[in-house]
Every structure is written in structure tokens, then in C-alpha cells.
TrEMBL record:
Domain Peptidase S1: start-end pairs: 32-221
Keyword Signal in record: yes
Stated name of the protein: pancreatic elastase
Location within or outside the cell: Secreted
Top-rank taxon: Eukaryota
Keywords of this entry: Calcium, Disulfide bond, Hydrolase, Metal-binding, Protease, Secreted, Serine protease, Signal
Length: 221
């Protein structure tokens, strides 16, 4: 059985061909849920996107710092009207290390083809313009995006990072985690989708989930 989803951690793909050597054993990872705790601040372009809830803020998604005052994230994370803030240099959501920079958001720009009610259409991407510029240092750096139009090769080294679920149906991790995902070419992606490409987007990764139904998950970005 094939199950399709839109992979939302754009921080991983943005740096797919310029990442450090693996620090952990990849074959211990069975799916996107889980992964390994990353070394603190080893992904300095990773941000925590948070929304205001009462008198406090709650983490909801990750993202990538692509310019001193611009963040790239997933459209589905920001397609509701909320008061947002971005935390740069974050590692543990429950602990303040003193390295964090907290930035408010001026405007949100969602891809014009994103459809909240048709996630399978893809284009799950948004840009957030910050009200001020981040200070770049060892804990806050810009992500290196692939050139416009570049299609990453089959089996290209790619990581997904974020504060995702620690287990299926579980709670989110308080510490930043990372997981390795293989990039697959369009031909392979189409074959796994039963002969029809699942999304009109150029990048596809495969996550094999060790479940009774032998599910293969395709994620298009």
C-alpha cells in the first residue's frame, strides 16, 4: 500500500547537498517519526516557528533562515491568522541556553498554488519576513539553498530536522532531532506511486515504515 504525504521540514531539503558528515547510524531510523537528537546548534539555520497562545508562545513548525530577515517554512504551518515569532539558535524548547534570538514576523507570503484543502497538490511552502535582521554567529547562519531549477540526484544525501513526534501518536521532542532520508529521482518516484507522479513538484523522498501493511511513504517537496 502506498500512502502519500507532503514532507514539511523544508530545513532538511534546503541543505540537501551541503551538510556535515552523518553523526549517527542511519539504518536505525525507521521513519520520519523518531530520529536522533542532533548535536546542539549543529544546524544553525534551523528555526523554531511559534505562535502566541494566551500569554505564552508554543512551537508549531520548523523552518530555515535563508536571509537575515527571511525564513522559509511550510505553507500549512502558517495558513491561519496568528501572532507568530521565530526563535533562531534554538535546541531545547524547554531550556534557554542564552544563544537564542527571538524575532517577530512582519509578513507571511504563502505560495499562490498552495491549497489548504488539497494538500496532495503540493506547493507547501511559505516565506516569512522578519521585523528585524538576525545577528549571524556560530549559532545562527543562513541555509544554503540549491540553485534555482536544480534537481537533486538519486540517493542524494538529505536530512530532515525538527522537533517532531518521538513516536507514532506520541508527543513532540523538546530537543532538536535529525533523520536521514534518501532522495529518489522522478522515474523512481513515479514507479513507486503506481505509474503516476503523486505531486507536480520536482523533489521526492522515500520513507519505508516498518509496519504490518508494509507501507511505503512518498514525500514530495
Amino acid at each position: 500500500m502506498l500512502r502519500f504525504l507532503v514532507l514539511t521540514s523544508l530545513a532538511a531539503l534546503a541543505l540537501a547537498d551541503r551538510v556535515p558528515e552523518p553523526r549517527y547510524i542511519e539504518d536505525s531510523l525507521e521513519r520520519v517519526v523518531g530520529g536522533d537528537v542532533a548535536q546542539p546548534n549543529s544546524w544553525p539555520w534551523q528555526i523554531s516557528l511559534q505562535y502566541k497562545s494566551g500569554s505564552s508562545y508554543r512551537h508549531t513548525c520548523g523552518g530555515t533562515l535563508i536571509a537575515k530577515d527571511w525564513v522559509m517554512t511550510a505553507a500549512h504551518c502558517v495558513d491561519r491568522s496568528r501572532t507568530w515569532r521565530v526563535v533562531i539558535g534554538e535546541h531545547d524548547l524547554n531550556s534557554n541556553s542564552g544563544r537564542e534570538q527571538i524575532m517577530t514576523v512582519k509578513t507571511v507570503h504563502i505560495h499562490q498554488l498552495w491549497d489548504t484543502y488539497n494538500v496532495a497538490n503540493g506547493f507547501d511552502i511559505a516565506l516569512m519576513h522578519l521585523t528585524s535582521e538576525a545577528t549571524l554567529n556560530a549559532y545562527a547562519q543562513l541555509g544554503s539553498l540549491p540553485p534555482n531549477g536544480q534537481i537533486l540526484p538519486h540517493n542524494n544525501l538529505c536530512y530532515i530536522t525538527g522537533w517532531g513526534l518521538t513516536s507514532t501518536g506520541g508527543s513532540i521532542s523538546s530537543q532538536l532531532k535529525q533523520a536521514y532520508l534518501p532522495m529518489v529521482d522522478h522515474k523512481t518516484c513515479t514507479a513507486l506511486a503506481g505509474g503516476a507522479a503523486p505531486f507536480p513538484t520536482p523533489w521526492c523522498v522515500v520513507v519505508v515504515e516498518q509496519r504490518a501493511d508494509a507501507t511505503v511513504t512518498l514525500a514530495a517537496l
